[in-house]
């Protein structure tokens, strides 16, 4: 019977064969312990000389790290094993004896590991992070499908910018200029006018010269957009969505959280509604704490961390000054200088994971913003059309997948939360 490590529990006391790689090996006299992995999980294979005979035992002993093999054995229940099972090996069929593997169980520097990212992905910790990433994506689709959203895919090659021109990736589009998408939002607004509630999930690109634990050049964003919803209603969707994702990871990734040593007690306490403070209150708080920041300035990482530290939950900072936010945000009804927007700040120093707002729905005001931001009517006429033909109040937001994975998995740097990170100094592998 051919099976996988994750399915081994279905075959207790039966003989099975598994395709696997050797993650690690330990010998003790007449026994060899094989740490096997197959992508679905990890299991220990026990090879006892007296049971398998000289030839198979010798084969087990000469196996090198990352050799590929078909292993046959009997599945045993074992309480001490993380997966709950062990394999008593009866046969080993070597597919390839691997050459000297560069990543050994000893410590390696980050640059070395990043140079070997194509291999590093096989390690237990990286495997756990990617599984949590996968669970967050799965739970995202479940949440939005259940809430009646339609998935719509915005383009990646665009003719105009969504989030300002300072960090656009430029490319030629035959004879025209084009840019890699910074955000699908403007297209998602068009989609919301066609489908009501929509969400996208795709790669976005920012030519940001930032070298921090929170910045990637290429990252993946989930962007919901909702017609007939004001900003207040959008905040409720956001906190319910984030709570749902946390619960899904806690429920479906217990082994992975354990491998990563994640403090799950902290995660268990996070549930909607999340606390909210205004930008004004945040500035006052920071000034009282001795930070040098004036009204009108944007928050940096230390500011966000200081604010988040006062809560054990993610916190919404709402109503930022209009001048530090994107052109499309709707002004506050009582104050011209602030907009109906929010950033959701994750606890434990992981920073902003969501940016969202209610969008301007008035044609004249939008035209005024085009002028203020030097946006050409020619490029943005289609976006203005949305305010021309049945304009409605609408809101949306973008959740950065990698920062969310970093926070939920307890991973310090976003570079480990995407399979092949694109960083300021890294385009390979
Ligand atoms: O706040 P941002 O720039 O918002 C938008 O792009 C809106 N158009 C979204 C919308 O309303 N549809 O980015 C949203 C999120 C941030 O909160 C952060 O989580 C993530 O995207 N993000 C990054 N993640 C990794 N590396 C970067 N360089 C990021 N820049 C933003």
Structure notes:
By secondary structure, the chain is α+β, with helices and mostly antiparallel strands. It has two domains: 5-96, Nucleic acid-binding proteins (OB fold (Dihydrolipoamide Acetyltransferase, E2P)), CATH 2.40.50.140; 117-416, BirA Bifunctional Protein, domain 2, CATH 3.30.930. It has helices spanning 49-52, 54-62, 110-115, 117-120, 124-146, 185-195, 231-252, 254-259, 264-268, 279-288, 301-309, 363-372, 377-385, 401-409, and strands at 15-28, 31-37, 42-48, 68-77, 85-96, 150-151, 157-158, 170-173, 176-180, 197-205, 218-227, 276-278, 315-318, 331-332, 335-339, 341-346, 351-358, 394-400. It has an eight-stranded mixed sheet. The protein has a five-stranded mixed barrel with strand order 1-2-3-5-4. Helix 5 packs across helix 7. It starts with 14 loop residues before the first strand and ends in a 20-residue tail after the last helix. Bound molecules: 4-amino-1,4-dioxobutan-2-aminium adenosine-5'-monophosphate.
Provide key terms for this protein.
2 domains; binds 4-amino-1,4-dioxobutan-2-aminium adenosine-5'-monophosphate; 429 residues; 32% helix; eight-stranded mixed β-sheet; OB fold (Dihydrolipoamide Acetyltransferase, E2P); BirA Bifunctional Protein, domain 2
Give the secondary structure arrangement, pairings included:
Layout (H helix, E strand, L loop, with lengths): L14 E14 L2 E7 L4 E7 H4 L1 H9 L5 E10 L7 E12 L13 H6 L1 H4 L3 H23 L3 E2 L5 E2 L11 E4 L2 E5 L4 H11 L1 E9 L12 E10 L3 H22 L1 H6 L4 H5 L7 E3 H10 L12 H9 L5 E4 L12 E2 L2 E5 L1 E6 L4 E8 L4 H10 L4 H9 L8 E7 H9 L20
Parallel strand pairs: 3-5, 6-10, 12-13
Antiparallel strand pairs: 1-2, 1-4, 2-3, 4-5, 7-9, 8-9, 10-11, 11-18, 13-16, 14-15, 16-17, 17-18
Helix pairs in contact: 5-7, 5-14, 12-13
Bound molecules: 4-amino-1,4-dioxobutan-2-aminium adenosine-5'-monophosphate (4AD).
The site of 4-amino-1,4-dioxobutan-2-aminium adenosine-5'-monophosphate has 23 residues, from strand 11, strand 17, strand 18 and helix 14.
């Amino acid at each position: 019977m051919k099976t996988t490590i994750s399915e081994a529990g279905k075959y207790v006391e039966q003989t099975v064969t598994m395709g696997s790689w050797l993650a690690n090996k330990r010998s003790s006299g007449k026994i060899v312990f094989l740490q096997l992995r197959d992508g679905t999980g990890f299991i220990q294979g026990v090879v006892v000389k007296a049971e398998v005979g000289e030839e198979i035992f010798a084969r087990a002993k000469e196996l090198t790290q990352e050799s590929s093999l078909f292993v046959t054995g009997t599945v045993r229940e074992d309480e001490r094993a993380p997966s709950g099972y062990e394999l008593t090996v009866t046969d080993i069929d070597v597919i390839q004896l691997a050459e000297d593997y560069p990543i050994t169980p000893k410590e390696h520097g980050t640059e070395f590991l990043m140079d070997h990212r194509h291999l590093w992905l096989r390690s237990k910790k990286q495997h756990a992070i990617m599984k949590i990433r996968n669970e967050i994506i799965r739970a995202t689709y479940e949440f939005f499908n259940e809430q009646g959203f339609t998935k719509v895919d915005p383009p990646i090659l665009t003719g105009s910018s969504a989030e300002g021109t300072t960090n656009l990736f430029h490319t030629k589009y035959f004879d025209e200029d084009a840019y890699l998408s910074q955000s699908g939002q403007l297209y998602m607004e068009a989609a919301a006018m066609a489908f009501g509630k929509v969400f996208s999930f795709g790669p976005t690109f920012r030519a940001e010269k930032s070298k921090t634990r929170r910045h990637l050049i290429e990252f993946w964003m989930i962007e919901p957009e909702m017609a007939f919803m004001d900003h207040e209603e959008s905040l409720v969707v956001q906190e319910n969505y984030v709570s749902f994702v946390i619960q899904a990871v806690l429920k479906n990734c217990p082994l992975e959280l354990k491998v990563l040593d994640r403090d799950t007690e902290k995660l268990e306490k996070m549930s909607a509604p999340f606390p909210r403070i205004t930008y004004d209150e945040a500035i006052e708080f920071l000034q009282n704490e001795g930070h040098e920041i004036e009204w009108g300035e944007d928050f940096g990482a230390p500011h966000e961390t200081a604010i988040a530290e006062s809560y054990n939950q993610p916190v919404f900072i709402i109503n930022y000054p209009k001048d530090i936010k994107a052109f499309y945000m709707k002004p506050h009804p009582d104050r011209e200088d602030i907009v109906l927007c929010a950033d959701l700040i994750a606890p434990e120093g992981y920073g902003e994971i969501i940016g969202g707002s209610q969008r301007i729905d008035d044609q004249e005001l939008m035209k005024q913003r085009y002028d203020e931001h030097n946006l050409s009517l020619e490029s943005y006429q289609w976006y203005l059309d949305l305010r021309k033909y049945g304009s409605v109040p609408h809101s949306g937001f973008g959740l950065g997948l990698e920062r969310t994975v970093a926070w939920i998995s307890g991973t310090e740097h976003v570079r480990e939360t995407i399979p092949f990170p694109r960083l300021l100094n890294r385009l390979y592998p």
